[in-house]
From TrEMBL:
InterPro entries: ArdC_N (IPR013610), DNA_mismatch_repair_MutS-lik_N (IPR007695), DNA_mismatch_repair_MutS_N (IPR016151), MPTase-PolyVal (IPR041459)
Residue ranges occupied by any Polyvalent protein metallopeptidase domain in the UniProt entry: 192-308
Any one biological process term the GO annotation gives: mismatch repair
Pfam families named in the record: ArdcN, MPTase-PolyVal, MutS_I
Species of the source: Segatella bryantii (Prevotella bryantii)
Region described as Disordered: 629-691, 787-824
Name of the protein in its database record: DNA primase
Entry GO MF terms: ATP binding; mismatched DNA binding; single-stranded DNA binding
Ranges where the DNA mismatch repair protein MutS-like N-terminal domain occurs: 695-805
Gene3D superfamilies cross-referenced by the UniProt entry: DNA repair protein MutS, domain I
Positions with biased composition (Basic and acidic residues): 635-647, 657-689, 808-824
Record domain N-terminal: where: 10-121
Length: 824
């Protein structure tokens, strides 16, 4: 949202003031908060032009609260032209004015024309342009604020008799409201939502089954009462997830509790209902349930500056949809939204909010009690007040001064103090696992000190929370081509489970949408779901890294080598597996699928997986006791298959010759001594150069020398980081922030360039780097995080084939098999 200028901020404050005054007045007026004298809807005087629903609401509130006889408004300049100038010292009301004075070419954003030029175009040419909406704030005045009642008494009396209160217009409750409502219900049934007769005399909207239930006319004292119920339920129906999907305004960080969403949606329903009733000349009343929410709405309107803008959008959309339905337009439901499935999955995850739900009932305005959550290790404290958590809005509770509370906590050694309300925009709603190692107590402010009243024991709730962190979450295919959910819980062995078909669809739909935050939420929630299922029933586990070979068959496999072939003209690179089987001569290699290759780098025991993979690929050889030269393709003729088999056998022989030569070179003592001297000399020179560098940066530079053409992703705690020129590249490709360290210098004595992302987002960012043509080396930690950490390359990922160095590494086995890298 574009930042507001000061004029827009002042207008928003005025709108909030009018709205709060109206809602609070309902308590003294039997629930009536809008149009108590039943005037007609706001219009521009004298042209009679109608205004948008939200503008109509604000104008009517201004008229009600100042006791004006009509809802007719005019601009200052227009009134002056008519000789009906605005009286001195009169205060107008803000009006949101949208104009389309400029049009832009849909295919060429640089091609812009004025509205005058746009109107000169043919209909076909106009289709090539779209309007650019600009928002302005203007000030309107009621005709009672002008000299009209004095300079044109007859004209004024005429408009009052036509647009004034029900008494001024000489109308009372009549059959007009009943006719309008019955017609509205008929149009609703035809164009928007199913309408049913209520058996229990109560009007309601059933969201899940999407129908409106309305009692018969005999159940109401007046047609106006029935009109209120009908409009309220139809407005509720516009908020269905497959219509406007109105679930409440999002809070800070994009999170909101169900209660907050419900109460803010209730406010939109009441306001939109009031606007539609206003157009019918009927008073708007708050329901008994809504009367209980007035204090909450008042607080949120004051402390959440974005709420009034969200209300404007929601009210305009709801009333507009209702009016279109009444005109005969068919309101079709949108296709089922992915967000609905995401929400359902999130709710199914075993997360608990017992502690936060209990805490929200404790802060008390009268007793001045608050809840303080202390994190001594992190030196932070969360303070939950009954109200007034906002630091920008003056809504402080007397006797609960935030400055004094913060001062008292800082004396205790807490560097960071945050304030929250029990709910709403500043609501406090962490899950129970977030309270681990924290102290929760009820306190009261006495002058400049905090007095502890009671401790809250949260240990049992924390135990029940069962929150799990995952190192990796992937969707893989097994040998049969079926999708498997792979999870690697922190400090536990990996788990694989067959997910539901709908979950597989949801998993990939969120990735295709490109919303990283939503995709991460789905991955974590899905992993939590299937982890919980595994804990309840371990038989669900799928063996991705084992075969059905017998122990005897496995024991016959002496050595396994998996490698990539070189790409040749008209022949792409291939993944091949060579196995040395006891009692067998040289066996032609077999092809390894991409799914099997990916699993190789995920296996907890890589050597064991290689053996089982060979047992699967060479099952016919192991079980029949003879070699069979099997072609890799099933659609080749016999001659092609034999030719390919010979080529693979030659490649395998060449591979083994290389292995033998390398082994002989290693055994040469003279060569070893020469290499050692050279290494010692280089190490000595390097040590002198990097004596002042941090251990982490020295490791980075060492690995960078070995892989100069690769972009290094360096695992540091919960993040993957890049440095120097790699940081500049990744920042541009991934759109992540590039920073310069003030503590660490690079090998040239300059501030170290850094860029990084959370470790669990690797599966999102790695494909982007590969698509950009980068060759990526993933550097994982080989020791416990609390030690001085040693790192090595656990995975090399290239946009094309692997480099020769990568093939050599695979042959020599330098990849650390206990590392937890993976290949895509």
């Amino acid at each position: 949202m574009t930042e507001k200028n000061q004029h827009e901020k002042n207008a928003a404050e005025r709108q909030v003031e009018l709205l709060i005054n109206a809602l609070k007045s309902a308590r003294q007026n039997g629930g009536v908060w809008l149009n108590p004298s039943s005037k007609t809807a706001p219009q521009f005087y004298p042209k009679g032009a109608t205004v948008s629903p939200f503008n109509s609401l604000i104008l009517a509130l201004h008229s009600d609260q100042n006791g004006y006889k009509t809802n007719l408004y005019t601009l200052f300049s227009e009134a002056k032209k008519r000789g009906e100038s605005v009286k001195g010292s009169e205060k107008g009301v803000p009006f949101i004015w949208y104009s389309w004075n400029e049009y832009v070419n849909k295919e060429n954003p640089e091609d812009k024309i004025s509205r005058t030029d746009y109107l000169k175009l043919t209909a076909e040419q106009q289709e090539q342009y779209k309007g650019v909406r600009s928002r302005e704030m203007r000030i309107l005045f009621n005709i009672d604020q002008t000299t009209l009642p004095f300079v044109a008494k007859e004209a004024y009396a005429s408009v009052v008799s036509e647009h004034g209160s029900a008494e001024d217009r000489g109308v009372a409750n009549s059959n007009l409201a009943a006719i309008t409502v019955n017609d509205m219900l008929l149009k609703a049934r035809e164009n928007m939502v199913d309408v049913r007769m209520s058996d229990n005399g109560i009007a309601f909207y059933h969201k899940r089954e999407d129908y409106v239930s309305i009692p018969s006319e005999e159940n109401y004292d007046s047609p106006d009462d029935r009109a209120r119920d009908v409009v309220a339920q139809l407005i509720s129906a516009t908020g269905h997830p497959q219509r406007l999907n109105r679930e409440g305004i999002m809070a800070q960080g994009g999170k909101m509790t169900t209660d907050d969403a419900t109460r803010q949606n209730a406010l939109v329903n009441e306001l939109a209902t009031g606007v539609r009733l206003l157009s019918m000349g009927i008073q708007a009343k708050l329901s008994p349930e809504s009367m209980k929410m007035v204090d909450y709405w008042e607080r949120e309107l004051k402390e959440n500056p974005c709420l009034i803008d969200s209300i404007e959008t929601d009210v305009n959309q709801a009333v507009d949809m209702l009016e279109r339905m009444e005109k005969g337009e068919k309101i079709e439901k949108k296709p089922s939204l992915t967000d609905q499935r995401i929400d359902a999955l999130h709710e199914s995850v075993n997360k608990h909010y017992y502690i936060a739900d209990e805490i929200r009932n404790i802060p008390n305005r009268d007793t001045k009690e608050m809840v303080i959550v202390r994190d001594k290790a992190g030196k932070t404290a969360d303070v939950i007040l009954p109200a007034g958590a906002s630091l920008t809005v003056d809504n402080e509770v007397p006797g609960m001064n935030k400055t004094r509370i913060e001062s008292a906590l800082k004396k205790e050694g807490f560097d960071t103090v945050k304030f929250f309300n029990p709910d709403g925009i500043h609501g406090y709603h962490p899950d129970d696992s977030r309270f681990e190692d924290k102290e929760v107590c009820v306190s009261r402010l006495i002058n400049w000190n905090l007095k502890e009243l009671a401790q809250i024991d949260v240990s049992e709730a924390i135990k029940r929370s069962g929150s799990i962190d995952f190192e990796k979450i992937l969707m893989l295919k097994d040998d049969a081509g079926k999708w498997v959910m792979y999870m690697k819980p922190q400090n536990e062995t990996s788990i694989a489970i067959y997910p539901d078909k709908n979950d597989v669809s949801l998993f990939f739909n969120t990735i295709r949408e490109g919303n990283d935050e939503k995709s991460e939420q789905v991955r974590f929630d899905m992993a939590q779901k299937y982890y919980n299922q595994f804990k309840d029933n371990s038989a669900l586990k799928v063996e991705l890294f084992k075969s059905d070979a017998t122990a005897e068959e496995l024991s016959r496999i002496e050595r396994v080598n998996i490698f990539k072939t070189k790409e040749q003209e008209n022949k792409p690179s291939r993944l091949l597996c060579i196995a040395k089987i006891a009692g067998m001569e040289k066996i032609p290699p077999r092809e390894v699928s991409q799914e099997q290759w990916q699993r190789l780098w995920l296996a907890d025991d890589m050597r064991d997986f290689k053996t089982h993979l060979a047992a699967t690929l060479f099952a016919d050889v192991l079980r029949q006791g003879k070699t069979e030269s099997v072609g890799l393709g099933t659609d080749k003729n016999e001659q092609e298959a034999q030719t390919e088999s010979r080529e693979q056998t030659q490649q395998a022989a060449f591979q083994e010759d290389n292995d033998r030569q390398e082994a002989e070179q290693k055994e040469s003592a003279e060569e070893k001594e020469k290499q050692q001297k050279k290494a010692d000399k280089e190490a000595s020179e390097e040590e002198a150069k990097t004596a002042t560098l941090s251990p982490m940066l020295r490791q980075f530079l060492d690995l960078k020398k070995k892989h100069p053409d690769a972009l290094l992703l360096f695992r540091c705690g919960d993040c993957y980081e890049t440095y120097k020129e790699d940081a500049e590249k990744s920042s541009k490709i991934l759109g992540i922030t590039l920073t310069k360290s003030t503590k660490n210098m690079d090998d040239k004595g300059k501030p170290l360039a850094m860029a990084g992302f959370p470790y669990h987002a690797l599966d999102i960012y790695l494909p982007k780097l590969i698509r950009a043509g980068e060759r990526v080396a993933i550097c994982d930690q080989l020791e416990a995080p609390r030690q001085t950490t040693r790192r090595s390359i656990s995975e090399l990922v290239s946009p094309g084939i692997a480099s020769q160095q990568e093939q050599t590494d695979q042959k020599q086995g330098v990849r650390h098999e206990e590392s937890q890298g993976f290949h895509r």
